[in-house]
Amino acid sequence: MVLESISRIIKVQLPAYLKKLPLPETIGGFARLTVSEWLRLLPLLGILALLGYLTIRPFLPKKKKQRDSLINLKIQKENPKVVNEIDIEDLNSANVCYCRCWRSKTVNSLCAKY
């Protein structure tokens, strides 16, 4: 039953649909189509656009993976949050904070007043 329906669509209904389409013979003929004729062409144009997209999709650039947007790529990856604790008594001044630059793998100290 299902195969009979598919066969009828391909052999009978699709050719009848294609015969009724208002396909102009020249490019200028598209400019003279009415709105109702464009609406009858819309399903065919949509299918052709989808097939074109599916054909060129493998050649389109890939989206960046989430790993590319991470800042910390190597340091203590097993920890969900990397925190270094320093005793305040060990510092020479109370107005010092530390900043780690994850990309360059260096530790820079920044002075700031709180």
TrEMBL record:
UniProt cross-references to InterPro entries, sorted A to Z: CISD1/2, FeS-contain_mitoNEET_N
Listed Pfam families: MitoNEET_N (PF10660)
The keyword Transmembrane helix belongs to this UniProt entry's keyword annotation: yes
Residue stretches spanning the membrane: 38-56
One GO process term, biological-process aspect: autophagy of mitochondrion
Keyword annotations: Membrane, Transmembrane, Transmembrane helix
Domain Iron sulphur positions: 1-66
GO cellular component, one term: mitochondrial outer membrane
Gene Ontology molecular functions: 2 iron, 2 sulfur cluster binding
Superkingdom of origin: Eukaryota
Protein name per Swiss-Prot or TrEMBL: Iron sulphur domain-containing protein
Upper taxonomic lineage: Eukaryota, Metazoa, Chordata, Craniata, Vertebrata
Name of encoding gene: cisd2
